[in-house]
């Protein structure tokens, strides 16, 4: 079919990420860069021209990247794009990261593997919120080479004094983050100044153009000379042979080498390096995905780290970490996750939030939660001792990632070191179930869930909950009810009715509900929970399975019912702080279900609730097609 | 390690992650150059075996050479081949342009196979450089119920950690070739000596650069009749790989509409 000749060996492309505030000109820069270096396939240029004309615009270089219809219509780049690009003999891949705030996770997706970054700053506007945010991320994901492109200098009339002043303020900002930029390049992407060719409008600037600066970015340094780290990815048993597979993250292996296997501290020798259709190997180096046999034939687990006896990683059950938080809801201490580190997974709980970065000035402050897309330092309590290396840019060391119960990535946690147990704090190490939510749901025939019934005293919460409980039980569903009075008789008997105690009451009810829902049960919580903040707390504790149900009975009706005589007692002053009389009730604005009880009997209202619950916790039909 | 070694090592890592995390798992084998490279990488990852089935979603309109190739290499490579067919074009969304509508048959055929075998993971050989919409993909790309791709709500993916949400009605598309370029594929084919259907090589001044159904794929002008000549041609080519695929040119968003609905 063809003649085989050894193909010319090539260096791998160097990934370069381009970041910066929205509208500071990232996409224009990339379009210009590709055009000036003649890196565009013919089809792409035609597409841009056609798209621009269709919209009645002059040629827009940024359209090159906005390759999805929806992006163009919204006028922002949705996701990162990778574009191969060549300077002389050197290959690059440009990773475009969007500036639009809500798309932070896309930026990380693109930027995490970059060797260098170009931070684009509008020289006239200076650093903005996303300039700070992106710079912070460059630090947290460990990018070592940062080139700052002072863009749109045409708007400053190419004036040296103005541009230099702007440069100084950006430099000061980066210094706070311990980022030492490789270079500042004054440029205009739109006009082409100092991108691929030297601008004749800034004779005062003697430094390199952007392409010259890129060409000087050092090639990724070899990780092969560092001490070995080989995380076990899997163990196969093919025929009679047991093979351990994984990617060498750093260092090298050689047949006969002694390695320690994980925390069990078993020592074994590398007996063989196995492969198919590859020349036999005695040695393998960082970056290679290998298959090895061990002597003696021990059986490691996925996640076990193979390392040299003399060069062990750190070990600890409390770990300090930086955090970039990607979930749409804030993070609070006490939340539990799986920590993934290379191929290992550990159950962790956020033991404390030690500081949160204030983005306006990049200073660190104590706080009790990390906002969406926030940055922080936290302490993680691990359910067992784990092995790790502290985060080190340019290596895979300490690249921790938090995943939630649905195996979704919610944050990055570059691990800093082992945390001391501080006197007076709880050294708790919660363990997680190994039975998945989905396995439980399949066994029970329905999912778990928490139906949080809020309403005035006397609205009918407990009565409806008990009626619904009976109906759900008779359908074969696993259901339980937590109602306010029952909780206060037992679990919460130490609590009174002060604001703090009420909140604690809500917190406990939510925590118990979460445990029950995690075990696959349908949980009905009947609790006045009068404030929006109360219910928000409960939602945060419970998570995705939280469903707010408003038992909507007008106050006069509740008072006329007064089943426990409490309204009367409150009116006569025998009790105070009674919701609906002398304490406020904040009705939910958008409950997932509103149950109006006026003029309806209990079984009918309960049926509505049961219908809602049954639909919410139902398993979708397998293989449903839209 | 050179660039091909790095791409190979990364693809093997991805295939091993998929094999570990997604069960049942299957690989799409379209019989084209990319999917042959993918089968080859699986044999590298699993030491000569492919420990999961390969699926051919048959539109019934492939070139005869492709069916012949399939039968020959299923045996030679000892593959566990699953075959699925596609609904008639009349059953497909009539608002799609004609070629896209024809291509959408494959999407429906694939969906039926995913349901039949209750697959948690499907390995597919798409690459970022093929088409702008594919550049947006993740390595592990969750598909919701109905197999829809939500391009606006993709999970973060970094530091080689892949999201593996496991919910009913959902599966994950795994893309081990995402980082490869067309020329990398050809250089790897040359280095490894991976067999291909002859349609990729020039006859009478024309060859196929990308292979789809007979009626919606056109050959390009080319004199490249060996792998080395194809590589030489690509090094100077400035036209895009899918230029011969009719559906890409019908309307600006045809390809994206196909992708969102589950097309590869």
TrEMBL record, chain B:
**Domain of life per record:** Bacteria
In terms of InterPro entries, this protein maps to:
PAPS_reduct_dom, Rossmann-like_a/b/a_fold, SO4_adenylTrfase_ssu, Sulfate_adenylyltrnsfr_sub2
Q: Which Pfam families match?
A: PAPS_reduct
Keyword vocabulary terms for this entry: ATP-binding, Nucleotide-binding, Nucleotidyltransferase, Transferase
Instruction: List, in alphabetical order, the GO biological process terms annotated in this UniProt record.
Output: sulfate assimilation
Catalysed reaction equations from the record: sulfate + ATP + H(+) = adenosine 5'-phosphosulfate + diphosphate
* Family annotation (SUPFAM superfamilies): Adenine nucleotide alpha hydrolases-like
For this protein, what is any one GO molecular function term?
ATP binding
**Domain Phosphoadenosine phosphosulphate reductase: from-to ranges:** 25-218
* EC numbers for this chain: 2.7.7.4
Family to which this protein belongs: Belongs to the PAPS reductase family. CysD subfamily.
The protein's name is: Sulfate adenylyltransferase subunit 2
Native organism is: Novacetimonas pomaceti
Lineage, opening ranks: Bacteria, Pseudomonadati, Pseudomonadota, Alphaproteobacteria, Acetobacterales
């Amino acid at each position: 079919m063809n003649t085989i000749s050894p193909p010319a060996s090539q260096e791998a492309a160097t990934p370069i990420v381009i970041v910066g505030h929205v509208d500071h000109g990232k996409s224009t820069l990339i379009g210009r860069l590709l055009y000036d270096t003649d890196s565009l396939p013919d089809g792409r240029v035609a597409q841009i021209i056609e798209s621009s004309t269709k919209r009645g615009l002059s040629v827009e270089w940024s359209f090159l990247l906005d390759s999805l219809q929806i992006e163009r219509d919204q006028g922002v780049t949705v996701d990162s794009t990778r574009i191969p690009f060549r300077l002389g003999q050197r290959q690059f891949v440009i990773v475009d990261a969007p500036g639009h705030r809500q798309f932070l996770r896309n930026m990380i997706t693109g930027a995490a593997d970059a060797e260098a970054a170009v931070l684009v700053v509008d020289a006239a506007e200076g650093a903005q919120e996303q300039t700070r945010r992106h710079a912070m991320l460059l630090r947290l994901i460990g990018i070592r080479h940062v080139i700052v492109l002072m863009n749109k200098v045409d708007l400053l009339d190419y004036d040296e004094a103005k541009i230099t002043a702007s440069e100084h303020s950006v430099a000061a900002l980066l210094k706070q983050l311990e980022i030492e930029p490789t270079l500042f390049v004054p440029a205009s992407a739109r006009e082409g100044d100092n991108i691929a060719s030297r601008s004749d409008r800034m004779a005062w600037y003697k430094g390199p153009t952007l392409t010259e600066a890129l060409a000087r970015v050092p090639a990724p340094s070899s990780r092969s000379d560092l001490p070995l780290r080989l995380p076990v990815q899997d163990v196969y048993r093919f025929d009679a042979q047991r093979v351990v597979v994984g990617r060498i993250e750093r260092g090298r292996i050689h047949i006969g080498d002694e390695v320690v296997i994980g925390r069990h501290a078993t020592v074994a020798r590398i007996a063989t390096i196995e492969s198919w259709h590859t020349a036999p190997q005695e040695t393998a180096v960082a970056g290679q995905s290998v298959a090895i046999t061990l002597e003696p034939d021990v059986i490691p687990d996925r996640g076990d780290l193979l390392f040299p006896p003399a060069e062990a990683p750190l070990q600890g059950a409390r770990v300090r970490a930086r955090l970039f938080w990607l979930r749409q809801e804030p993070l609070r201490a006490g939340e539990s996750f799986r920590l993934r580190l290379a191929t290992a997974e550990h159950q962790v709980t956020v033991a404390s939030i030690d500081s949160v970065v204030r983005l306006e000035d990049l200073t660190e402050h104590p706080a009790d939660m990390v906002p969406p897309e926030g940055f922080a330092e936290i302490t993680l309590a691990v359910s067992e001792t784990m092995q790790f290396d502290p985060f080190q840019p340019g290596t895979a060391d300490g690249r921790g990632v938090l995943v939630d119960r649905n195996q979704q990535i919610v944050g990055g946690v570059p691990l800093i070191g082992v945390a001391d147990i501080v006197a007076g704090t709880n050294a708790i190490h919660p363990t997680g179930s190994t039975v998945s939510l989905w396995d439980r749901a399949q066994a029970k025939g329905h999912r778990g869930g928490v139906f949080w019934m809020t309403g005035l005293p006397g609205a009918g919460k407990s009565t409806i909950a008990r009626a619904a409980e009976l109906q759900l039980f008779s359908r074969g569903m696993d259901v339980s009810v937590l109602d306010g009075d029952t909780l206060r008789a037992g679990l919460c008997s130490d609590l009174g009715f002060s604001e703090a105690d009420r909140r604690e009451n809500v917190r406990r009810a939510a925590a118990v509900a979460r445990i029950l829902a995690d075990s696959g049960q349908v949980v009905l919580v009947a609790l006045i929970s009068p404030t929006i903040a109360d219910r928000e707390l409960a939602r945060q504790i419970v998570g995705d399975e939280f469903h707010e149900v408003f038992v909507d009975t007008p106050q006069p009706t509740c008072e006329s019912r007064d089943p426990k005589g409490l309204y009367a007692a409150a009116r006569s002053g025998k009790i105070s702080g009674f919701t609906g009389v002398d304490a406020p009730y904040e009705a939910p604005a958008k409950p997932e279900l509103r149950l109006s009880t006026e003029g309806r009997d209990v079984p009918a209202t309960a049926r509505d609730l049961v219908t809602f619950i049954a639909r919410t916790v139902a398993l979708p039909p397998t293989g449903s097609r839209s | 390690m050179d660039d091909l070694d790095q791409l190979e090592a990364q693809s093997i890592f991805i295939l091993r992650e998929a094999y570990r995390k997604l069960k049942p798992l299957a690989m799409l084998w379209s019989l084209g150059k990319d999917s042959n490279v993918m089968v080859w990488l699986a044999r590298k990852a699993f030491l000569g075996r492919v420990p999961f089935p390969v699926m051919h979603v048959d539109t019934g309109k492939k070139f005869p050479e492709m069916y012949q190739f399939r039968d020959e290499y299923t045996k030679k490579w000892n593959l566990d081949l699953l075959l699925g067919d596609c609904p008639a074009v009349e059953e497909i969304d009539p608002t799609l342009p004609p070629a896209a509508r024809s291509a959408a048959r494959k999407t429906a055929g694939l969906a039926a196979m995913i349901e039949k075998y209750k697959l948690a993971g499907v390995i597919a050989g798409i690459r970022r450089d093929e088409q702008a919409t594919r550049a947006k993909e993740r390595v592990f790309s969750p598909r919701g119920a109905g197999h829809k791709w939500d391009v606006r709500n993709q999970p973060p993916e970094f530091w080689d950690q892949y999201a593996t949400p496991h919910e009913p009605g959902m599966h994950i598309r795994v893309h081990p070739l995402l980082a490869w370029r067309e020329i990398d594929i050809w250089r790897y084919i040359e280095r490894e000596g991976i067999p291909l259907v002859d349609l990729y090589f020039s006859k009478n001044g024309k060859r196929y650069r990308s292979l789809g159904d007979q009626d919606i794929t056109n050959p390009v002008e080319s004199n490249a009749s060996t792998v080395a000549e194809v590589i030489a041609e690509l090094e100077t080519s400035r036209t895009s790989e899918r230029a011969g695929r009719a559906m890409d040119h019908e309307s600006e968003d045809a390809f994206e509409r196909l992708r969102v609905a589950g097309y590869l």
